Amino acid sequence: MGILKFKSHLFKLPSFLFGNNNLCTRKTFLKSNLISAHYCSGNSLQLKENEHLTPPRFLDVHLPNASQTLKLHPTWLRDHCRCPDCYNAITYQRNNDILKLNEHSTISAHSQSDGLLHVLWSDGHKSIYSIPWLISNTYEGRCQKQEEEASRLITWDGSMGNLPSLEPILHREALHDDNTLSEIYRRVIQYGFAKIEQVPSTEIDTKIIIERVCRMSCTVFGKFWETGTNFDHMDTGYLNGYLEAHTDNTYFTEAQGYLVFHCTHFNGTGGESFFVDGFHVAKQLKQLDPAAYDYLSKANITAEYIEPGEHFSSGGAILRHDPVSGQLEQLRFNMLDRAPLTSVPQSEVGTFYRHLRTMAKLVRQKENEYWFRLLPGTVMIIDNWRLLHGRNNYEGKRVLRGCYYSRSDFMSKARHYGIIS
Ligand SMILES: [Fe+2]
Ligand SMILES: [Zn+2]
């Protein structure tokens, strides 16, 4: 029995996580529920949440170097025992039975020493917890971490300045050095994009560097695509006109998290690219028109993509927030891919368009656009949940290869490199 895996360290915690003593109010306790399941003679299973009148005995964990205590619910504590009986450290999965947690959640004795909490349960089971691990794995600890991570994001406008993400990362270093790879992840997470220079133009070289960063995701556009040489898909991205700032895949139930471009050939005029930092625009909107921000965080907007044999359709808010921490997580902004507006009642339509126009005006502000020319040899990795991208019309030949990375895959690697938790 013992602690098998601790990921996090002690960090500064918000005061609402703590209580100074055991005097939690009865009101708080009465909100706690006990799930009970019992079979009725009528052959139907009745699942009823009974408010229990006996309050659970929260366990107070005394924190080192702090006068406060961390109050933990006994059921949470038992559920988070990491002993070999309760947790499989090889598969990283729980072994415990959710239906037995309550009956096993009475604490007989507990003590603290050397950063560890020892608990003896009424059924004789013993648990040992690392206190820093307990802190960082609570709801409050998670919110605090996500707030810290959000505060590390650097948003920008079109002037861009000396944004470190513009400094070149060379192809050979990205290919052979893991620290460089980790730096690519850090830049994409922090600034919304990273670029790799001097990538050779052969298809195999494009694929090798793309897959070196993350596994390619397979969508209706295939795993790996090329624009400028064919018109395989009925999308404006495959044509040569002006493309206004947008995010991709608003019509998927989950938009692909990241977009990769590799320009391999350009011989013509126009075709300059631009980015808009959607998180910067969101900040501006929140400040200038909080009602619009709030509305666009809730109103559902459906997008669609149709081509022979396919019809994708999906809805969601333009500003999507993490349901736990409330941090802004994703922008779904593509005015071209909007489906018929069936998600807003006619009585609300005026409000909807008013707020949408306010945001569109901010997206189109010249000061927010960062323009550049995607030159042959450059690979750009772009956060499609944060950055909007667009392009000038062009004449001539412009070949762009690329792929998507799923959010899950890219975030998994970012977590592996310690960039996010
Ligand atoms: Fe696009
Ligand atoms: Zn255990």
Task: Give a description of the structure.
The chain is α+β, with helices and mostly antiparallel strands and 421 residues long. Helices cover 26% and strands 30% of the residues. It contains eleven helices and 24 strands. The strands form eight sheets. Strands 11-12-22-15-24-13 form a six-stranded mixed sheet. Helix 8 crosses helix 9 and helix 9 (290-298) packs across helix 10 (349-364). Bound molecules: fe (ii) ion (FE2) and zinc ion. Zinc ion binds at residues 81, 83, 85-86, 125, 127.
Strand content: 25-35%
Mean pLDDT over the full residue set: 87
Q: N- to C-terminal separation?
A: 26 Å
- The class by helix and strand makeup works out as alpha+beta
Strand line-up across the major sheet: 11-12-22-15-24-13
Percentage of residues in helical conformation: 25-40%
Say which molecules are bound, naming each kind only once.
Answer: fe (ii) ion, zinc ion
Number of helices: 11
Shape: globular
Low-confidence stretches: 1-41
Sheet bearing the most strands, described?
6 strands, mixed
What is the β-strand count? 24
The radius of gyration over CA amounts to 26 Å
